[in-house]
Amino acid sequence: MIGARVMTEGLAYSLKGKRVFVAGHRGMVGSALVRRLASEDCEIVTVGRDRVDLRRQADVEAWMDAHRPHAVFVPAATVGGILANDSRPAEFIYDNLMIEANLIQAARRAGAEKLLFLGSSCIYPRDTPQPMVEEALLTGPLEATNQWYAVAKIAGIKLCQAYRRQYGCDFISAMPTNLYGPGDNFDLQSSHVLPALIAKTHAAKISKSPSVTVWGSGKPRREFLHVDDCADALVFLMQQYSEEMHVNVGTGKDVSILELAELVKDVVGFGGEFVMDTSKPDGTPRKLMDVSRLTKRGWQARTELADGVRGVYRWYCEQLLQVT
Ligand code: GDP
Question: What is the pTM of this model?
Answer without folding.
Answer: 0.95
